[in-house]
TrEMBL record:
Gene3D superfamilies cross-referenced by the UniProt entry: Formyl transferase, C-terminal domain, Formyl transferase, N-terminal domain
Entry keyword annotation includes Magnesium: no
Cross-referenced PROSITE patterns: GART (PS00373)
Residues that, per the record, bind (6S)-5,6,7,8-tetrahydrofolate: S121, L122, L123, P124
Domain of life: Bacteria
Protein name: Methionyl-tRNA formyltransferase
Its job: Attaches a formyl group to the free amino group of methionyl-tRNA(fMet). The formyl group appears to play a dual role in the initiator identity of N-formylmethionyl-tRNA by promoting its recognition by IF2 and preventing the misappropriation of this tRNA by the elongation apparatus.
Organism annotation: Paraburkholderia kirstenboschensis
Domain (Formyl transferase N-terminal) ranges: 6-192
Length: 328
């Protein structure tokens, strides 16, 4: 099926590439794709194209990679060129998903039918950069995708539609990301079909109550603070998979990444960070409340292993302690 509604797409990671693929597969013309400049990545720190750029190039779509779209920013020449390109590209609507650059009002005003953003939370909860991680970390029972009309604020625009999904006890950021990317891709195609049919989309302002901000995940957050409750640490482990991983550091300074863990009642009154039992079922560590059973671990330079395999190549002893990170 082919459509006449022309869509400029702006996005960068896998989450956005899923939406671009769905829009393109549905037959909407995509005259231009905006994505972030190639970034150094991996061991060799070679420049790598974003998932959105890779998809666009494989499907013959035009790509632009301005470092900024703000005339008043550090790259005024490149910003002006990108704005001129957008103005010269005939299109009806702009779709934005995890693009990572600020879009000033003059950019939002270019598309005749406005800009639609695909955001991975149930707004106004978790506006900002890391909504999937923060929903898991906070223990939210559900999350979802919200489509919204973009305005110049940070995820403050009027809501067009949403889809909800429960967060299960074994969801990680990786599993929830993939589910939400698929849901977002379906939802945006439905919205574009309706926009093409009706020339507009109904939207509702976000409620003023319940606003939270999902700060970007920092590597400094990776350290497990054993003074916290085991249930909170178990959520952190799930939220920080695949990035940045949760880190437990032994008193000798060896850092172990923890990829899977479950809370359970504590046995005895050991200090937080103490290993109280070791078995093929898990390494149990005392927490501020309860204990955490570590079931998938990774030694420096190693790979993720189930606890039984990990222990075959790494000696741990009961009574050993993990460091407590400096309290913030």
């Amino acid at each position: 099926m082919s459509h006449s509604l022309r869509v400029v797409f702006a996005g960068t990671p896998e989450f956005a590439a899923a939406a671009l693929a769905a829009i393109h597969d549905a037959g909407f013309p995509v005259p231009l794709v905006l994505t972030q400049p190639d970034r150094p990545a991996g061991r060799g720190m070679k420049l790598q194209a974003s998932p959105v750029k890779r998809y666009a190039e494989e499907h013959g779509l035009s790509v632009a990679q301005p470092p900024s779209l703000r005339r008043a920013g550090k790259y005024p020449v490149e910003a002006e060129a990108a704005i001129n390109l957008l103005r010269a590209t005939q299109h009806d609507v702009m779709v934005v998903a995890a693009y990572g650059l600020i879009l000033p009002q003059e950019v939002l005003d270019i598309a005749p039918l406005g800009c639609i953003n695909i955001h991975a939370s149930l707004l106004p909860r978790w506006r900002g950069a890391a909504p999937i991680h923060r929903a898991i970390e906070a223990g939210d029972a559900q999350t979802g995708i919200t489509l919204m009309q973009m305005d110049a604020g940070l995820d403050t625009g009027a809501m067009i539609s949403e889809v909800r999904t429960p967060i299960s006890a074994d969801d990680t950021t990786a599993t929830l990301h993939d589910r939400l990317a698929n849901e977002g891709a379906k939802l945006i195609v439905e919205a574009l079909v309706e926009l093409e049919r009706n020339g507009k989309l109904a939207s509702t302002p976000q409620p003023a109550a319940g606003v939270t901000y999902a700060e970007k995940i920092g590597k400094h957050e990776a350290a497990l603070d054993w003074r916290r409750p085991a249930a909170v640490l178990a959520r952190q482990v799930r939220a920080f998979d695949p990035f940045p991983g949760s880190v437990a550091t032994l008193e000798d300074g060896t850092s172990i990444k923890i990829w899977a863990a479950a809370p359970e009642p504590a046995q005895g009154g050991d200090a937080p960070g103490t290993i109280t039992s070791i078995s093929p079922e898990g390494v149990v560590v005392t927490c501020g409340e309860g204990a955490l059973r570590l079931t998938q671990l990774q030694k420096p330079g190693g790979k993720r292993l189930p606890v039984r395999e990990f222990l075959a190549g790494f000696a741990l002893a009961t009574g050993q302690r993990f460091q407590l990170p400096e309290a913030k």
